[in-house]
Amino acid sequence: MPHPRLLPPALLLAALSSSLAGQTLNERFAAMSRNAEERGLAEPFVGITTDGTPTTGLFPVRADGIDTAPIATAATAFLDTLTDVQRAKTTFPVEDDEWRKWMNQHFYLRQGVGFLEMTGGQREAAFALMRATLSAKGLQLTRDIMRLNHTLGELNNDNFTEYGEWLYWLTIMGEPSATEPWGWQLDGHHVIINAFIQGDQMVMTPLFVGSEPVIATTGKYAGTAILQEEQNAGLAFMNGLPEQQRETATLDTAKPGNNNLTEAFHDNVVIDYAGLRADALSAEDRAALLALIQLYVDHQRGDAAKVKMQDVAAHLDETWFAWVGGNGADDAFYYRIHSPVILIEFDHQQPVGIRHLLDSRAPTRQHIHVVVRTPNGNDYGKDLLRQHLADHPHPH
User: Fold this and answer.
1) Which of 263, 102, 73 lies closest to 169 in space, CA to CA?
2) Cβ atoms of residues 323 and 259 within 8 Å
3) Per-residue confidence (pLDDT) for residue 25, from 0 to 100
4) Which of 26, 114, 162, 372 is the most buried (most CB within 10 A)?
5) 214 with 228: CB under 8 angstroms?
6) pTM > 0.85
7) pLDDT tens digits, one per residue of 227-244
8) Pairing between β-strand 250-252 and β-strand 320-325 as defined by DSSP bridges
9) Do 230 and 347 meet the contact criterion of CB atoms below 8 Å apart?
10) What is the DSSP string of 228-286?
């Protein structure tokens, strides 16, 4: 069997649930959550690397000029709406492993304060924090994913115990500050946002977005659709390459299962560069690749996205594009964009929550997972935090 931290999500779910027969649903979910955390946190954080050792010097403490003051103000305002009990379960030290305790699967028992228990005012304050951190596009995507989780509940005989619009939780790491490191996390089914802030620098990875279904054709939120631009732009980029470069980019034309490598509790995965290196691209295709990457970077507020894209552009020659699956108009596929400073995975996944509605178990365009990572040790802003603590040690 592969190392536990490298188990694909479907195999992880099967492994965790196989010995839990006879327990209540809540007991099973609690045990599965504990097992996932034990496996996922067995190793200290290193980060996504190509050989097990992070490349150093990629993420200096510097003046990025991002206006993070509105984020800190919104976070403080949100915390001020909470009761003492809610605040106690929502706040953690900035160095805490709570950062790494996120999972896409709906069964995962999360920390923090949930939208379901929030008052109307608390929800508005939570959305204000998200609005201050995300772009309008990023906020819209987040809300649409939450709405599509309601749709999934509808498609499962109105099962709003496991699926629903408000089954999402917020945590705050550290104390919102203009100078000291802190951040926040949103965790729930098909959307996980990690936002680390240090002075005028921000890191918004790991970011996980997706849905099943990705297009609602019925129900309360009929017409809601997500990640179609990212899907279509990725396919267009692939098909716009010269034939030889398409062949170089293709790792496998068959796609029988799921391909994402960096989902929950996979913080230390070793992934070598593969596929087509961007220094072989024409000027037009280099611009198209940057535009494709920008679709993902633009989920964060504009000034932060601009800084991130400058780093991406500086490492464009070291960026690789890889493809799995077909490239026809209706094919399911996976693509990966991988450089020293960003890793993006787009994956059409096998059906899970809607498999009872389909004739096939093959990957479907109605189930998409996207992960965005900062390789080489700066997910969760860990490298920035490491440098800060080296100069300003915090008491334990």
Assistant:
1) 102
2) no
3) 78
4) 372
5) yes
6) yes
7) 999 999 999 999 999 999
8) parallel
9) no
10) HHHHHHHHHHHHHS-HHHHHHHEEES---S----SSTT-TT-B----SEEGGGS-HHHH
